[in-house]
Amino acid sequence: MSTTKKYWGSVVALMLLLVLTSTRIRWFMRPVFPFRPNIVLITLDAFRFKTLIQLSSQVSKKPFFPEFIKEGLFFSHCYTTSPQTLPAHASLFTGLSPRTHQVQFEALFRLSEAFTTLPEILQDQGKYETLAITASSLLSKESGLAQGFQIYDEDFSQPPREVFNLFYPNQRRANEVIFQFQQWLKQYSGDKPFFAFLNFFDAHSPSEAPFPFHQENIQPYQAELYFLDQQIQNLMQQMKQTQYFDNTLFVFVSTSGEGLQEHQEYEHGLFLYESTVCGSAFFYAPRWIYPVTIESPISILDIVPTFLDLLNLKAPENLQGKSLSPAFFYQPLASRDLFIETQLPRYAHHWESSDAVVSEIPDLHFWGKYIFRGCDSAGLAREELYDLKLDASETKNLAEQSDFKEIMQQFREKRNFFLQELKPFSKDLQDYTRPLNLIQERDLRIFNLPWVDGNTLPICSEDPWALGKMYYFVCYAKELLRGQKWEQAEQQLQKMLLLDPNHSETLFLLGQLALRKQDFTTALSLFNHPSIHNRVDSNLQQALIFSQQQDWYSAEHCLLALLGRYPEYSEVHKQLAYLYKEIGLSQKAVKHFELFLKFDSLQNPQEIITIRSLLQKLKS
After folding, report:
1. In this structure, which of 289, 397, 576, 588 has its CB flanked by the most CB atoms within 10 Å?
2. Residue 10 phi/psi, 5° resolution?
3. Exposed (0-12), middle (13-18) or buried (19+): which is 598, by Cβ within 10 Å?
4. CA 352 to CA 342: how far, in whole Å?
5. Residue 354 zone, left/alpha/beta (φ > 0; ψ -120 to 50; rest)
6. Which of 176, 215, 182, 210 is nearest to 196 (CA)?
7. The model's pTM
């Protein structure tokens, strides 16, 4: 055979091999699956993947998840739209930013039924069975997230964690969520594909890992991550034992990170630094997805369009995310701008809110983040700029440097574009705010919302960054309170009060400390402060003080006033019942004990047993 024929024969063979290989890859990895797979979407709250990786050298058994991600499509830079649980999940299920869906803060807002959610599309177009099992009361049915789910499991066996009247959301462990999912699978018919949403909340504060994880020589938050990692491994092992494993797409998404005192932020929600807004996303389906890690930044807004693209389902026209399907072909993702915001400073502390833009400017070889923190009293913008390639920890603010003037201007223009484009779906706030009867008592106690009565306080003009740094004292004080270190906690709170004399949470905690010392005069003056006199728990504490002073008239007046605002608030009924029992008005006591049992949403089993016993005695 001539050299020429051998040459062209080799070329043809090589081309045929490339075509066959390409066809095979595209068959396995094309954005339209050959059939409707089951989908398990798992959200990880307050999850820092880098912290989990660092555990490998510190614990007896290496974490599972860092090795697991090598088996699928891993996006190492998945940005949230807001470092708050509910707003981020609303974005995850709608593909819309908080400025559009208007779920800007926990408890006060709800997702309007006007929006079309991912489970609604999967149920209507894809004929999926839909199931949600939440781990936190922040994602209750009242939040509006239940839209499209045939089963929305939010059954919490444990009451909210309460330490020194510091309330945390009802939550259950990941192993409980997994158990409920496995129970559901046992009765699942298999006639239709299923979409299961599982929420893992273990890494969220307070960090109290169960035995034996807290015994490892690691920090409390690390112990929570280690526990959660083991539960993810358990879930995957259990799924491998089922007939559904090979036909299931698993997707893990971190909806927020955790401050861990970086930039002096204990938890998340106040600031927009990488530690709390940059998470990860992982797609795992061994029959279809080849392992690869993508470092290009994506958004949780991209999850909905990606699912719909993969399943060949029609997407709503107003989606603000982009499909990630090119990554399934090893194709690069197009460069894009991302917008992040937090309204927690505004609603929780009456400080200015903040927003940020993450963007790449190719012609200047710059990939970074611009943060806007409102304007000072002179109208000058408070700005930050970070080069995320060279300074991933965001330690050097470049906003004032002359070399970055052009970059700053481009980022300002990008921010203005987002502000113009991301419009609310409706201008009527009633479409987004929860009616009083949908703001659950547990949420009132967790967040102490003064706004539900329309009594909003003016926004503080101080720099939210500086105020947030001050809030470090409050977070540290809360940690000390959990450890019953009363004097040290009071010292930290007094530092915060010097910096912000109207900070509501500080005033309330100082009132609690004064009450503990039986200093009723100081406690009453603090609970009557203009910044907190309308807080639900402030009113309850005032009533408690009046009762301890046997000023029954003032205590009753205070509680009845609260009852006028919140007729179904069980804690008010309970205190009124004890008050009437104390002064011998048995019939009234019985009435309010019964109303307490009717309206109680916190479900403390021991308390219920005690009150039922009291009722029997009062009726006999």
Report:
1. 576
2. -65, -40
3. exposed
4. 10
5. beta
6. 182
7. 0.82
Whether residue 206 has a cis bond before it, omega within 30° of 0: yes
| Helices 303-310/85-94 angle, 10° precision | 30
Contact 358, 297 (CB under 8 A): yes
CA 160 to chain centre: 16
The C-alpha atoms of residue 531 and residue 457 are separated, in whole angstroms, by 7
**Residues 244, 187 contacting (CB under 8 angstroms):** no
Other beta carbons within 10 angstroms of residue 108's beta carbon come to 19
Residue type, 25: I
pLDDT of residue 152: 95
**Hey, what are 481's tokens?**
């309170």
Cα–Cα distance for residue pair 432/427, rounded to 1 Å: 10
Residue 174: half-sphere exposure toward Cβ, Cα within 13 Å: 25
pLDDT tops 60 at residue 619: yes
Contacts of residue 453, Cβ cutoff 8 Å, sequence gap at least 6: 534, 565
Q: DSSP letters of 26-50?
A: HHHH-SS-SS--EEEEEEETT--HH
Nearest to 77, CA basis, from 281, 251, 320: 281
474 Cβ partners below 8 Å, 6+ apart? 492, 493, 496, 503, 505, 506, 509
- Under the phi-then-psi rule, with left for phi > 0, alpha for psi from -120 to 50, and beta for the rest, what region is 46? left
Half-sphere exposure of 255 (CA within 13 A, CB side): 25
Contact between 306 and 45 (Cβ < 8 Å)? no
In three-state secondary structure terms, 337 is: coil
Instruction: Give the Cα separation of 620 and 615 in Å (integer).
Output: 9
Nearest to 505 by CA among 521, 488, 517, 493: 493
Do 73 and 281 meet the contact criterion of CB atoms below 8 Å apart?
A: no
Task: State the pLDDT at residue 299.
Answer: 97
For residues 87 and 484, give the distance between their C-alpha atoms in angstroms, rounded to a whole number.
33
pLDDT at 245 exceeding the cut of 70: yes
DSSP 45-83: TT--HHHHHHGGGTSSS--SHHHHGGGSEEEEEEE-S-S
Specify the DSSP element, H or E, that contains 487. helix 486-499
Question: Which tokens in the block code for residue 271?
Answer: 């600031």
- SS3 category, 149: coil
**How far, in Å, CA of 210 to CA of 490, rounded?**
29
Continuous segment of H or E residues that includes residue 558: helix 552-565
Using only the alpha carbons of the chain, give its radius of gyration. Answer: 27
Q: Which residues, in sequence order, are CB contacts of 139 under 8 Å at separation 6+?
A: 85, 86, 89, 145, 154, 199
CB atoms near residue 11 (< 10 Å): 10
Is the CB of residue 467 less than 8 Å from the CB of residue 506? no
Peptide bond into 212 cis (omega under 30): yes
